[in-house]
């Protein structure tokens, strides 16, 4: 089994994790990967499905925080304006955003013949990081079929981490990066709720990584000091806590605290985006009422989700890095394994 942070005694914060310590601890959330490894290609799609029904018909409240906007994602503008998620979420590489967009549109049109006729269009959510260091991003090799494959294998349960799906060619802090996940449990009014995070980790300067125990870990053959930060990180946060869109945006903002704990400073060339949604309180596409009832978190109790977002994000990034093996990619480019470095240090 791939290593995770807790296998190395690295514990982020004080809140307890869920049973899986993954975004799928939020009931109904499913994750799927499709990985392409062939020659100089090391890339893929990762799909997050917030629930098992038609998201266009039964939307969820969501929010987005753009920590640093050096990115080419699709759908964030409408999400920020309307606060609603109406498609699965696809993660891929920078030049596959259009392909992912088309795949989500195709699926939505197949399931909803009234789109673009009796009702409006659809807002696909596709987010990206640049995997061009290890993979030939110019090949634009990912297809709609690859996106469909990630969507079709999405499942509840443990989340595959490391160099899988969209994480296949990613790097973090000079090490191999990729997909990671973590969760936290919060008790509110005597009931236990889950908050889970999935990250696509492709950010951080070599030498800047700070572990939860205060150690700094520098990869072998690290580039010279002073290199600019040009990476990116996508954070998808799910929770079953009832929250309004403004609250979800506030919680998404706290994911940045988890990145900062790791030593990130969100450089000029970094695309750092956090997207959050709640599975509580679906929104019907054809709601006939002028007013709808909505349950929302008491603002005085929001510090719990704030803390959970920071802790889960920090741990999810470490899980992504520790699960990823040392990798040689395009033109002999190489990324070492954080797990190997920590094992040698021990």
Automatic annotation (TrEMBL):
Pfam families: Peptidase_S58 (PF03576). It comes from the Bacteria. Coiled coil: none annotated. InterPro entries: ArgJ-like_dom_sf, Peptidase_S58_DmpA. Residues 327-346 are annotated as: Disordered. SUPFAM superfamilies: DmpA/ArgJ-like (SSF56266). GO terms for molecular function: aminopeptidase activity. Belongs to the peptidase S58 family. This is S58 family peptidase.
């Amino acid at each position: 089994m791939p290593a995770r942070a807790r296998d190395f005694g690295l514990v982020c914060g004080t809140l307890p994790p869920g049973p899986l310590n993954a975004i799928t601890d939020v009931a109904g959330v499913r994750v799927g990967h499709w990985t392409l490894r062939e020659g100089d290609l090391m890339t893929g799609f990762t799909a997050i499905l917030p629930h098992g029904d038609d998201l266009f018909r039964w939307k969820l409240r969501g929010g987005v925080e753009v920590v640093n906007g050096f990115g080419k994602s699709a759908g964030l503008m409408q999400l920020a304006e309307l606060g609603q998620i109406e498609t699965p979420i696809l993660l891929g590489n920078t030049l596959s955003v259009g392909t992912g967009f088309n795949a989500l549109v195709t699926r939505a049109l197949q399931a909803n013949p009234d789109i673009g006729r009796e009702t409006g269009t659809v807002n696909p959510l596709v987010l990206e990081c640049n995997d061009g260091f290890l993979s030939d991003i110019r090949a634009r090799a990912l297809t709609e079929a690859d996106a469909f494959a990630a969507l079709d294998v999405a499942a509840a349960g443990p989340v595959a981490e490391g160099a899988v799906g969209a994480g296949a060619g990613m790097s973090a802090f000079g090490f191999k990066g990729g997909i990671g996940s973590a969760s936290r449990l919060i008790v509110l009014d005597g009931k236990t709720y889950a908050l889970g995070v999935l990250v696509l980790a492709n950010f951080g300067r070599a030498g800047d990584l700070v572990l939860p125990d205060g150690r700094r870990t520098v990869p072998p053959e690290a580039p010279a000091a002073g290199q600019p930060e040009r990476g990116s990180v996508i954070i998808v946060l799910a929770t079953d806590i009832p929250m309004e869109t403004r609250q979800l945006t506030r919680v998404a903002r706290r994911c940045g605290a988890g990145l900062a704990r790791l030593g990130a400073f969100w450089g000029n060339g970094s695309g750092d985006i956090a997207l959050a949604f709640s599975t509580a309180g679906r929104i019907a596409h054809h709601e006939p009422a002028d007013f709808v009832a909505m349950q929302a978190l008491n603002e005085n109790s929001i510090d719990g989700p704030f803390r959970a977002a920071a802790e889960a994000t920090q741990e999810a990034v470490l899980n992504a890095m520790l699960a990823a093996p040392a990798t040689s990619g395009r033109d002999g480019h190489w990324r070492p394994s954080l797990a190997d470095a920590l094992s040698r240090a021990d």
